[in-house]
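Dissemination and training. As part of the outreach component of the grant, students in the summer workshop were shown how a complex can be specified as a set of sequence lines and then modelled as a single object. The example used during the hands-on session is reproduced here so that future cohorts can follow it. Participants entered these lines:
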Amino acid sequence: MNQVKIFDTTLRDGTQGEGISLTVEDKLKIARKLDELGVHYIEGGWPGSNYKDIEFFERVKELPLQHAKISAFGSTRRKGIPAKEDTNLNRILETGVSVASIFGKSWDFHVETAIQTTLEENLAMIADSVSYLKSHGLEVIYLAEHFFDGFKHNEAYALNTVKAAAAAGADCVVLCDTNGGTLPDGIAAAVGRVCKELSIPVGIHAHNDCELGVANTLAAVQAGARHVQGTFNGLGERCGNANLCSVIPNLQLKMQYRCVTDDQLAGLTQTARYISEIANIHVSPNQPFVGASAFAHKGGIHVSAILKASSTYEHISPELVGNKQRVLVSELAGQSNLLAKAQDLNLDVTRQTDKTKAVIEQIKALEHQGYQFEGADASLELLLREAFGELEHIFTLESFKLLVEKSGDNPFLSEAFVKVRVHGESIFTAAEGNGPVNALDNALRKALVKYYPAIAHMHLADYKVRVIDEKDATAAKVRVLIETTDYKNSWNTVGVSDNIIEASWQALVDSIRYALIGKERSAIAEDAPFGKAGLINH
Amino acid sequence: MNQVKIFDTTLRDGTQGEGISLTVEDKLKIARKLDELGVHYIEGGWPGSNYKDIEFFERVKELPLQHAKISAFGSTRRKGIPAKEDTNLNRILETGVSVASIFGKSWDFHVETAIQTTLEENLAMIADSVSYLKSHGLEVIYLAEHFFDGFKHNEAYALNTVKAAAAAGADCVVLCDTNGGTLPDGIAAAVGRVCKELSIPVGIHAHNDCELGVANTLAAVQAGARHVQGTFNGLGERCGNANLCSVIPNLQLKMQYRCVTDDQLAGLTQTARYISEIANIHVSPNQPFVGASAFAHKGGIHVSAILKASSTYEHISPELVGNKQRVLVSELAGQSNLLAKAQDLNLDVTRQTDKTKAVIEQIKALEHQGYQFEGADASLELLLREAFGELEHIFTLESFKLLVEKSGDNPFLSEAFVKVRVHGESIFTAAEGNGPVNALDNALRKALVKYYPAIAHMHLADYKVRVIDEKDATAAKVRVLIETTDYKNSWNTVGVSDNIIEASWQALVDSIRYALIGKERSAIAEDAPFGKAGLINH
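and obtained this result:
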């Protein structure tokens, strides 16, 4: 059987990660997106543990899901009571889900130390709980917590716990490496053994504490597991769960298992980024398969080779997972990176050789001063367009003043005064801010918004400062990188100076100029009194 | 043989990661730290590719390294010329290193497509280059680029390339999964085969494109590799290199190989965080082993269990890698570290329990606001001394104003006006600077130098800014870290605010206050007209 079922627990185990907190709305949005991607199960939460999850199970019924079954999480019954009196199990039934995923203990040490009961009672807790849920018609996924640690310390007992679940009617037994400390060999041996002992499907639930969450999941599938649990972007407690963004393409593209359709797989990158946006969690750009850098090439040799054949430095075609190739411009790269970028912009770099050489010299000189364009695509584009005479200047800075003041115990005061010339008019504005850059940003927008109303809808999403030459720190050069977004797109700009305000100002101005290239230029033509006669220089 | 050699390429392959740019100073600092950790090789850069790397190799000779050998990177000779005429190989010799790591092609597709030569000439390029470097007495590590892809497509040819390197005298052959697309099984099979064919040590260089960089490295060691390449925090091109922060503890704690001493291993977390600070790269808190969340417990069940026995939810003792357990009920990690620090300063933390509690509460509150004392020992010391009444306040800030101005094409102007009270005298100074922080620094020193002449001899050595909360970038909080030196010692201070000037000011003031605790207090007693009667507050 070549099919592997994907069980997503982003909404349950994922939310146990540090700094992760999802509203019910967030969870519903993510559930819908996961369903589009084609996962088979979505674990929505633990109804026995909090009321937010109960509301989720109520409202998720209204979603028009196409693929995924919703599962509710819980534990086996408490020691010493009948299953039907266990609140936690009854809460699962009350949600009205068709699938329950309940966890129980496999490790004798945990039975005796953590829940403090006998090994026999623990087996009864497992069997009773599974039977009870089955008797109400649910599909039951049994999660064997700490299975691998248990298997290592008391193999016979660990096996008895999963046999008890299977005998009681569980539809699937999932082996959990709860502490994330097992290596792939240990995973494969235990999964292989359980697959021999049981006639129902076996699953894997791996954590990433040894940076082996994905490897352990793949090893389990090779050993016979056909149900895989994980989270998007590897969210989850401590070091997170097995990352489905890597598990799915590895299984499907490298190991020829079937998880989702090819079209669904092409939605992987977008799904991962969407979930990171909703969860407001910074996802590393170098995340495999779906990260912004996953197919980004910087070294000059690599770039000149991928221009000959992508497969020279790419292990898969990025489009298969909905990602794309990027060529970064940097001091490490030769000309080939820059030419590739210019071609992207439809600038004719082949025939206009003088211009091409001049702009390459200019970029080299700027990089030598400390500019870095690989993190500032928008500034690079402005520079290239300018070199090729394709950039219209929209406003001129006449002057600005910035005042930061502190007196006694009063709070800091930041005020900016900006004088710009736009469409022949000289505009003088003043604005306050939480800090100097914020004050400048506010004053500059205030000056421009009359002619370019769309800039009201963009805002700065990230602001980074880096000292380039540290020999004499406060007199040293700094590089400022700014990310700006208009909620649909985002773009990055750079400024360098030995004055942090000047560097910030350059990056701010570029971010606005870039925004005005595209949609604003056409808007100006239609709306603005002076048409497209945008003027010289910032 | 149980020893595995660690070859760090953070300074070479690591810098090919997007957004990573290290100065020569940065590289020297990192080299020193890697040496302390006990890595066996540090690959410093590619002298044939850029001048910054040549400067690094010159200056690294001055460092008192204890453990690590420095290696210079390069390629095999160009096609069609003798090795001795190859600039790139000669540049390696010119650096004066004792180890060279040179890469060559293993994959017939690459030979024909990327470098466009014959399979025979490629073998000659490998053999000639290795022989040439060996004839100059270097230890030569041969990097078989794309070995696993080559082995899959043309096994015999791939094997011939590494045999050519070995026959020419290479000291070690490292098999590279350059595109990061191979799974652990494929790695193990190829490494096992090469180990049988060659009598010299075999190494592994894995990338993380399938989120298997660590797993592939471990699989290679199990198959016989005894030399492991990777980077700290997994920095590197695209999805990064195999992460040594996970590779080392897995090999040493889980697989019983020897990489570094136990004491060195206990420095792993600090090394990882230090490198991330220097590289100014955000390292995910959920990074295995060394991340701030790696042993952080959030779930209620987990927390109550770890209070009974840590091993219930921890796969190793965090202290083994210098990390620590955190229970996310409290923001403050490592109260014991704090107490240890106070004891270092001879502050009596055992008997003065009210003071101790108060200062812990204060630090908790500050950490919650975004302060971070790990990189700011001097600020922490000031805080502790203040809590224990051992700090004399030397000056009071009455007010300051900062003006930054830009008019037309004139250069930026930065002026600061500072009013402080020192020894009963109110001093009002004005100073210019290259930027606002420099202007403030100059004005503040000008005000204090009359009473404290020694501050003329200290200067700021480093200035770093980081946005803490990225939700609304220019209005977000920033953390400023400043390093100050008086040419003998250096110390670090911190400031946090949503105003970058305020945060810088706090760190500046702390850096001067700290300088005045030690030598200045005694200097004052001898030289200053008002003796030690240093006054209240900054």
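Chain A touches chain B through 123 residues (CB under 8 Å). Students were then asked to discuss how this feature might be tested experimentally.
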